[in-house]
Specification:
Rossmann fold, globular, alpha/beta, single chain, 7-stranded mixed sheet, 7 strands, 134 residues, 28% strand
């Protein structure tokens, strides 16, 4: 699936993504500054998260309570090894019921995941973005 969007349509696109995806683990691949966290914030809004959503670059994981489910938002950019991933308790996070897991910079996590979708964000013209979901 491929979708183009801008900040004006991001909430609608977030709803389309959630309707299309079956797995509750969604990985985000995109260059730095391409809008991963902004898209995740829109997804969280669709899931009933009322708290502000921010990048977990330094905390590694942010947890949000939504009206429909919980959300775990990982940013694995700073992690360099499987050992560091295990030390943060990554595997235990994956077994939480009724929880969406959103992972930025997901390369280290692939060996630990079951079903997931991958969203690639591609910058486009006029500050718009195109995403590909697989």
């Amino acid at each position: 699936m491929e979708i183009a969007y801008s900040l004006d349509t991001i909430d609608t696109v977030a709803g389309e993504i959630l309707a299309f995806t079956k797995a509750r683990t969604i990985l985000f691949s995109a260059p730095m500054g391409s809008g991963k966290t902004t898209l995740i914030a829109a997804l969280c809004k669709q899931l009933g998260v009322m708290d502000p959503v921010s990048s977990p670059t330094f905390s590694i994981v942010n947890e949000y309570k939504g009206t429909h489910c919980d959300v775990l938002h990982f940013d694995l950019y700073r992690l360099k090894s499987d050992e560091e991933l295990i030390q943060i308790g990554f595997e235990e996070y994956l077994y939480r019921p009724n929880t969406y897991v959103f992972i930025e910079w997901p390369e280290l996590s692939l060996n630990y995941l079951g079903d997931y979708h991958l969203i690639c964000i591609l910058p486009s013209e006029n500050s718009s973005r195109k995403i590909e979901i697989s």
